[in-house]
Amino acid sequence: MAIPSEGEIIQIHSYKHNGKIHRVWQETMVLKATKNIVIGANDKTLVIESDGRTWVTREPSICYFHAEHWFNIICMLREDGVYYYCNMSSPFVFDHNAVKYIDYDLDIKVFSDMSYTLLDEDEYEQHKKAMGYPLVIDHILKSNVDKLISWIDKRKGPFAPDFIEAWTSRYKFQKELHNPK
């Protein structure tokens, strides 16, 4: 698998289990990339939905993808604090200048006070039947919901107190490096 370079602009492609594209984020700057982790950042990036609708993200975000975990984490930097949107998903692959993963419907929204809520359980059950999620996928996803909640409770990974500060500083540095005044 290719690995993007620090400072490179890539896309993020979200698919559904049936192989159909779900959503594309047009521009994300790579802040760190290894064979197992991609950390990126974007701000006011164009997002294209599978039905062709488009929208633009409202705030800067730090995106965390891992090749061994069945979730990804979007850290949204809002005026009243950091909010996290966690997608239960396949581990990512990097292919043709894009981070790609399968979105498995379940999401965890984490608020700035680190309280959280599990979202879209009905959508998950509906898609599990409609797209025939295998039992092994169901078990992996439920186990990874527990792992993700443990990360939140223990302030691990992107939930660690210094994660946001370190990566927003890196993003500012990269933006200045690529767009000198």
UniProtKB/TrEMBL annotation:
GO molecular function: magnesium ion binding; nucleoside diphosphate phosphatase activity; ribonucleoside triphosphate phosphatase activity
Highest rank taxon of the organism: Bacteria
InterPro entries recorded: DUF402, FomD-like_sf, Ntdp-like, SA1684
Keywords: Hydrolase, Magnesium, Metal-binding
Record-listed Mg(2+) 1 binding positions: N87, D103, D107
Amino acids binding Mg(2+) 2: D105, D107, D120, E123
Cofactors that this protein relies on: Mg(2+)
Domain called DUF402: residue spans: 18-156
Keyword Metal-binding found: yes
Chemical reaction(s) catalysed: a ribonucleoside 5'-triphosphate + H2O = a ribonucleoside 5'-diphosphate + phosphate + H(+); a ribonucleoside 5'-diphosphate + H2O = a ribonucleoside 5'-phosphate + phosphate + H(+)
EC number: 3.6.1.15, 3.6.1.6
Active site: R23
Xref: Pfam families: DUF402
SUPFAM superfamilies linked to this entry: FomD-like
NCBIfam families recorded: PRK13662.1
Annotated PANTHER family: PTHR39159, UPF0374 PROTEIN YGAC (PTHR39159:SF1)
Function in brief: Has nucleoside phosphatase activity towards nucleoside triphosphates and nucleoside diphosphates.
Family of this protein: Belongs to the Ntdp family.
Protein name as catalogued: Nucleoside triphosphate/diphosphate phosphatase
